[in-house]
Amino acid sequence: MSDELKQTATDKHPGWTGAYYNEGSGPDGIFDKLKEECGVFGVYGHSEAAALSYYGLHALQHRGEESAGICASDGGSAFNYHRGMGLVKEVFTNDIMETLKGSITIGHVRYSTAGESKLANAQPLVFKYRGGDLAIATNGNITNAPEIRAELEALGSIFQTTSDTEVIAHLIARSDETDVVQALKNALNRLVGGFVFLIMTNDRMFVAADPHGLRPLVIGKLGDAYVFASETCAFETVGAQYVRDIEPGELLVLDANGLREDRYIEKKRRAICSMEYIYFARPDSDINSVNLHSSRKRMGQQLALESFVDADIVTGVPDSSISAAIGFAEQTGIPYELGLIKNKYTGRTFIQPSQELREKGVKMKLSAVRKVVEGKRVVMIDDSIVRGTTSLRIVNLLREAGATEVHVRISSPPFKNPCFYGIDTPDRKELIASAKTVEEIRQAINADSLYFLTQEGLMEAVGGNEDEKNRGMCFACFDNDYPTVLPEDAKLGCGC
Amino acid sequence: MSDELKQTATDKHPGWTGAYYNEGSGPDGIFDKLKEECGVFGVYGHSEAAALSYYGLHALQHRGEESAGICASDGGSAFNYHRGMGLVKEVFTNDIMETLKGSITIGHVRYSTAGESKLANAQPLVFKYRGGDLAIATNGNITNAPEIRAELEALGSIFQTTSDTEVIAHLIARSDETDVVQALKNALNRLVGGFVFLIMTNDRMFVAADPHGLRPLVIGKLGDAYVFASETCAFETVGAQYVRDIEPGELLVLDANGLREDRYIEKKRRAICSMEYIYFARPDSDINSVNLHSSRKRMGQQLALESFVDADIVTGVPDSSISAAIGFAEQTGIPYELGLIKNKYTGRTFIQPSQELREKGVKMKLSAVRKVVEGKRVVMIDDSIVRGTTSLRIVNLLREAGATEVHVRISSPPFKNPCFYGIDTPDRKELIASAKTVEEIRQAINADSLYFLTQEGLMEAVGGNEDEKNRGMCFACFDNDYPTVLPEDAKLGCGC
Amino acid sequence: MSDELKQTATDKHPGWTGAYYNEGSGPDGIFDKLKEECGVFGVYGHSEAAALSYYGLHALQHRGEESAGICASDGGSAFNYHRGMGLVKEVFTNDIMETLKGSITIGHVRYSTAGESKLANAQPLVFKYRGGDLAIATNGNITNAPEIRAELEALGSIFQTTSDTEVIAHLIARSDETDVVQALKNALNRLVGGFVFLIMTNDRMFVAADPHGLRPLVIGKLGDAYVFASETCAFETVGAQYVRDIEPGELLVLDANGLREDRYIEKKRRAICSMEYIYFARPDSDINSVNLHSSRKRMGQQLALESFVDADIVTGVPDSSISAAIGFAEQTGIPYELGLIKNKYTGRTFIQPSQELREKGVKMKLSAVRKVVEGKRVVMIDDSIVRGTTSLRIVNLLREAGATEVHVRISSPPFKNPCFYGIDTPDRKELIASAKTVEEIRQAINADSLYFLTQEGLMEAVGGNEDEKNRGMCFACFDNDYPTVLPEDAKLGCGC
Amino acid sequence: MSDELKQTATDKHPGWTGAYYNEGSGPDGIFDKLKEECGVFGVYGHSEAAALSYYGLHALQHRGEESAGICASDGGSAFNYHRGMGLVKEVFTNDIMETLKGSITIGHVRYSTAGESKLANAQPLVFKYRGGDLAIATNGNITNAPEIRAELEALGSIFQTTSDTEVIAHLIARSDETDVVQALKNALNRLVGGFVFLIMTNDRMFVAADPHGLRPLVIGKLGDAYVFASETCAFETVGAQYVRDIEPGELLVLDANGLREDRYIEKKRRAICSMEYIYFARPDSDINSVNLHSSRKRMGQQLALESFVDADIVTGVPDSSISAAIGFAEQTGIPYELGLIKNKYTGRTFIQPSQELREKGVKMKLSAVRKVVEGKRVVMIDDSIVRGTTSLRIVNLLREAGATEVHVRISSPPFKNPCFYGIDTPDRKELIASAKTVEEIRQAINADSLYFLTQEGLMEAVGGNEDEKNRGMCFACFDNDYPTVLPEDAKLGCGC
């Protein structure tokens, strides 16, 4: 085997111990937010593919701050790739960028909950098999991965990661099909869940989405090259032209003949994740041609229509709820103010062991602006409530800063059900809206009033048309209507 | 002092070469913004003084991203201190924090223009002299430092930094006074300029401001301890109670007997830097009890009153002009929209040498939101125009994204004169407003219309009362009325 | 899959570029020495197994400076492991050591030629298969690995490394045997080559050697625990008692019942690598109870007997030829002197691009001692000649320092044939002794005389007894008598 | 000066805590050796001066492993310099080397005892004074520095380091002389102690030695350029021609007119440090044209003549006593063997807190070779005994490895008195030879016999000629005859 995978790797934070604030999700995090699990970016046919990937992944950094990776092929017999723990700008130095030669690249940024950070799971995953080299980057979750993995292990497969993504590589490698496209189609047909895949061989690229199109992916052109990204904001950064969103069940094949549109399964009803509209995607991105800032502003306006409250100021929880708060303010005429501020120097920071200083540590991340909220009746807009602990903390910050009333308005329905399609959510029993009524939640978060946007209001705000009702979204976390069959042992969250 | 010691140091970024975008000022930076030069934070009498300093400096990080330092005294015969290049969270690891024992600390964060970063100049500066140990942290500039330095050198003094701050240490050490307070008073009386000083010995602390109070500093209490910070936002973070702003010409002495209020010179007219109100200070900070978000929002409202223009949307240049933009929108009823977005993952990033990719690199930092601005008449609010290059770039971004008209409104008067009191400004000849009329500037930045807030409007917005006219601000950069005598060879910018 | 492999990784040298001297082999290296490929160290049943592994691997560091790894099991459902590029002391920090909990460990140090350094190939390799977790550390080479790999790929196996070692994991995972011991025996019987394996599961350890025992491994005890190491020097460091060397074809099984001695194949004639005696192993190690310093000193004495030359001083090429040089000096009565000195601060160093300074750069590594050799007839002892370039360089160093004659004596026969059993040798055509006569080599290296130890003299020096002739060594690199069948496409060198 | 500034810095080893073995001196070190304090290397008039300095300092690395620095001048108005904690090869990356432009350089490597490592004290020290820039690198100690420092502080000088070297900069800067050469002469005349100085201004270099020539410095030429080094081994590395050793009291002036030989004081009796001959200098260096390997070998021969003992093998404590051991073996005919081995991978290593593993940790550094010493009567040669703890530990290692007798022979007289001229020695009360007889020491180190070389034997071995008796060495540590007046509060050790 004379062809070698030229891998290198970095870990920017080898010395990090537990004594730091993690901003991540979970009860120990300061911001109890849902975490997206991964962003992908691919280029086919550009001489500076790796540099474009760097820019594109940097634009998608909010979808994954834990690790980053780029795999490139110059058409030769081995990939050039690098993966590392940390931000894109930390992982990819000049020296490393110079090694990533080739006109075909796939790249990945990955989120992870604290303690499970693993360089071994960083993507793109790279394999050697009888057909040559194979690299895979994914966003989403395969709910039947445990079943397929058990089946493969029984056949003698060995695994090096805990990532679902490794499953599809085995399915391709073990296929009886000699044509890799057919092998890939067969493999994709085995999978249940919500996912997009960027897959590359030494000279081809494949792009696929699950049958319901649960996770976002957009197709663009840059000169003669094709580019693919989780969100359109990455196209703006690299200067690519948006072409269209991927279709559910689609399989795109890119080779020397250009792009061929194909599919591995009949399209089922579109069910793109509604939390992408509400919270995850960057406000300057569009999904199915709907801009997310505008969409969120309309959610705020709708919220105002549904639940007006007399108050002195409106404030949003930064950064994700600013658009909705501005919409709410515009609709009601109540002034929008900067009542809460988030320190822009994010990332892990030192904390003192003592409880007193731990509490101060929270304020390093988020604080209320006393002069703005003192003596005021405040409408506080947030995008969702997961466990409720964060909301309570923020309401209390506002009260300590002198707010006389705090009215909480949430720009989405109550979050009651866990996600199986790529979002890292806690168990149902930890979801406050699953167990408590709205009034009980109001008490738990110490608010004067609390209102959640209705599902109808949400749909209206996103802007559903008649032909494609609800813009074909998945609302399972609100209404328990999961678009796929769920195995009993279905994996929660993200399988990247 | 044009000759500089070109020291480099083993810092956080040893591999960085020129092939990175610097977000800094100057013609090579993407954001041609003025740079504040330094923030200070001091604690007297708290058992966890270093941890508080860490939190406080992190809150003041926007005032200096280049280096950070903390010096602590446990009352013994030697200081415990650490300085390093990078952000507070990068410079201070757990291991280092453990070494910073003591109940008295002064801390510093420092800005610097690219290429002049020097660990040797990082503060606090620490000296040994006949009286023991001396540490100094400062914000501002001593305009007659070259003169004093020349005088000291003639007497045989040697210098290890190019920092003005070293001058005051020599003046104290060479004083005939046996009482350090009197020696310090004499030294301060030699200085001309705008500055605040935090000075510590093994068991005392001194806090001083220039006779006009050009640079901000606030006094707070945390239990029995005293805390001092460049801005009140740091008090919010550490949980301290704001007491008052420092007075021009004041000298505070802290020792075992507590805090003693003294002064080294008669107070002159207060002339606090107006750019702190317009741009520098964090929006959740207060100066002289005026909140800066509110103040900036009023600037936007005032701007709307002075220069209404019919348009479809209002957008602000992030992050500093958001408050003014919201004020403008509220006043005019034109919707506030997110027309420009800044990537929140700041810091240096890799760039490709090719010109085409360099241009894309700009969009990694700031981009226009096509869906929001396309086909719209846009009011773009910014806080100031320095060279004009950045404004041109942003106007063009908006036009390329489809804006049909771009009306630029600036929430301050034309910036015509360089600063000698701690702000790093270019030479007068590089200041576009110094050479061009408003109409010429409009053409240069490719705007459909351009308007600068009047000085009267600015004063009104800040909220001057009668007793203390104009809140006692320095407007020299607008009106050339410098509050101090300026030596012919006065040092521009920042002397930290 | 709730059990996760808790892997972390470090790369100490992410920024290294080509502009450094590599001391490694190959035409660009300064010291054109053969490189051992790997050392292994295992512990079964000790509460501080990871710390012992650290000490043991540090003692074996000369066998591999490129990467280091330790995998530990605490009997639970997942391994704790870490691998990184660099020396043992660089890869394993305190923080990382604390994570390596468990009483069973295998560890590895790895050599690699420049440019092929790959974290992905760093050992121990860790896998998940139907039987649980599997980790493997190896020293040696599987000559039929390409054939087995092709066969496995045809069956649909995917590979993540280019390491031969991955082959054995697949063979075990695909076995029809339910008993892992039998599966392992079957797998080992498929392999041809020279190798030792340390293999661990969640609660067991296996130790195996090839049928000829080509690579060294020793068995020891430390209290109730068992330890395994490539060389006895590691036992001295951890305080373990040497028990015996492993037997060819042996398979040791360690589990809750202790150590069970088994074998997977009949023992064939022992053929341990003679270069271990001549050059690789540390002088304080023993192989089959023969101390290597003593053995090498006897080689020097034997050399003196075979090829006396009248001279003023004897000097050895440091560090590996010191023992032989002392033996030569003792035998002849010619004084042993320090005519050549190697800088003890090894590792990569900066070099200037200019040719003149490149040459000086060589002297940063090795220099002749002018005062010692000036005007002297020098006998220079070295252990082997590979390409001849190094010998020429050293002879010239001595001449430039004033040596009047340089007589080269080599403590091994001419090195004519490449190794297929774990030593990284160049192609046959690059081996100077393969193409040239001794006289031609003498001219090529600019020596006054040249002599190679005879194969009989070498055997005599090692101290073969009658029962086990020649101590059962492999001399293939000298006499072309390879102990195993060699496939046509047999992999050269090292397969770790 | 007992009060020290406890500065830490962002250095190469930020994560190191106490839980590592330090190989340094002191009761906690494994090797209780004396530590040299500093090596210097200077270049005047070579276009690649910085690269030469890198090579030269790397060759002098054994004189200081703690920090390294190079200052360069290209004749312009500011120096280019860099200092850092760590080895030369760690501190100077390619990027940094590129910044060190100029044809005049001085460089420095520095030793330090654990806990006092300070980047602030790293040399060359660099100052600005009325005459321009000034950089200083030194080796040695100024015994009256505390007195001068107190005097300067009384005059108002401030200090940034605890280094004696800063004193001379102040003396120059405060001089009334307008001619810097005369100012320097006056300053040097104030100093008492043992030292060499390399001093540079923007276009000149000065080289000076104390009146007794206590510390070594050699002068060489490389083409038209002049080079200066603590030892000749650095000349061999850079390819320079040795010219001569510096003379006591000499002052060399280098400027555009070349080298001018001058002196600032009458030469007093030469008294170069005898420990340089015995232990410190590299064996391939020459002092006053005496090669140190040869000199040490003669010490071993002399020791054999003075104290023959019947034994089976001779072994030296590596690395410093190998030459003496070979001399002893040659003289007696007892075979020289490798009875002790030092791990060549030096530097700090992880240790386990438990006492049992701590002891094993020692063996990571040095171990006895069982097969070599078992059942043997061993002569163990060492160069000196400081506290005795190390000797006891090594004797015990030999006994545990089976030595039946251990006869210790020391190649220098008993070390009874502390050094005030640049060597870091413990207080007199910690010096075992100060308090105990030879017989008592023998018992304390558990030896069967013990002998120290006589002072006459040492002189004989070094090779004193008649004209310059004893080669003009300082033997104060043996015979209490200090060549200079010693102030009551004279600083011990090293003042760099």
UniProtKB/TrEMBL annotation, chains A, B, C, D:
Record's function text: Catalyzes the formation of phosphoribosylamine from phosphoribosylpyrophosphate (PRPP) and glutamine.
Xref: InterPro entries: GATase_2_dom (IPR017932), Ntn_hydrolases_N (IPR029055), PRTase-like (IPR029057), PRTase_dom (IPR000836), PurF (IPR005854), PurF_N (IPR035584)
Residue sites binding [4Fe-4S] cluster per the record: 273, 419, 474, 477
GO MF terms, alphabetically ordered: amidophosphoribosyltransferase activity
Similarity field: In the C-terminal section; belongs to the purine/pyrimidine phosphoribosyltransferase family.
Domain of life from the UniProt record: Bacteria
Full protein name: Amidophosphoribosyltransferase
Key words of the record: 4Fe-4S, Glutamine amidotransferase, Glycosyltransferase, Iron, Iron-sulfur, Magnesium, Metal-binding, Purine biosynthesis, Transferase
CDD domains, sorted: GPATase_N (cd00715), PRTases_typeI (cd06223)
Cofactor: Mg(2+); [4Fe-4S] cluster
Organism: Paenibacillus gansuensis
Glutamine amidotransferase type-2 domain sequence ranges: 38-257
UniProt binding sites for Mg(2+): 320, 382-383
Pathway: Purine metabolism; IMP biosynthesis via de novo pathway; N(1)-(5-phospho-D-ribosyl)glycinamide from 5-phospho-alpha-D-ribose 1-diphosphate: step 1/2
Catalytic activity: 5-phospho-beta-D-ribosylamine + L-glutamate + diphosphate = 5-phospho-alpha-D-ribose 1-diphosphate + L-glutamine + H2O
Cofactor note: Binds 1 Mg(2+) ion per subunit.
Active site annotation, chain numbering: 38
Stored PANTHER family: AMIDOPHOSPHORIBOSYLTRANSFERASE
